């Protein structure tokens, strides 16, 4: 990792740089008021964030774009200072729909380009206006798509200048390997964004990604919002873990700061989500200390293994069916 002013950045395999801490912008339905996301983004920029993680499926990219453009217009930052990650939703995975999916995000954001555009899930859904198409029985309606063709369409978007970098999210090593071993591969993924925290350490997937010069990006790095729609309410609270609490006391930091620092020291980019202004600032204050090796080992030894975001489990090639 290299130091760039106050923001630590990770070098991507295409030469671009990703700020190692970003602000997640996902808000479960009913959890935030209109304007909360914009307020959070504008405050985060003042604190020092330059990386913002969004997605078409979050249905708030218009608000995200408006907040970012406001801080560009008032001179606080330049567009080139901002690193925005967008995601191609599952209903746009057919190769002929990829550019349309990207252009939907560009239109909402009112941007000319997106810094990083990633396949949200390796799970094709039936195309259409419904983001989560279901049968009358409640089962998801999946589509049959060759993701290698999807990747070629993403490469074309990069060649067209609509995106700077391309990557994936929620891919296991086997699924990622298919892209890496693709005949005629033009650009390899720069990142794989997955759930990762002290209860889901992703050691083997991290090792695989590092061996291929692919950055692992951690979502839910301090646990999850525990939305009952997809999170088992019996899962343990990461922020109440006694070992993490003891390490936090030792350094005079919060448990969230310890969890974030733990990931950063493993070379993982981190995108904690919060619309609470105090926590937004707190989550960024992790560059003034280093966890000792004994404390890294202590966190590594936590035996609990929990995946909070456990969705698409009935899809035949669900990424979570493999070990990593």
How many angstroms does the end-to-end distance come to? 25 Å
Shape call: globular
What summary fits the major beta sheet?
8 strands, parallel
Poorly predicted regions: 1-7
Count, helices: 10
The level of helicity is 25-40%
Q: On the 0-100 scale, what is the average pLDDT?
A: 94
Helices and strands, in order, run as EEEEHEHEHEHEHEHEHHEHH
Strand content: 5-15%
Structural category: alpha/beta
Radius of gyration equals 19 Å
Read across the widest sheet, the strand sequence of neighbours is 4-5-6-7-8-9-10-11
The number of distinct β-strands equals 11
Feature tags:
alpha/beta; globular; 324 residues; disordered N terminus; eight-stranded parallel β-sheet; three-stranded antiparallel β-sheet
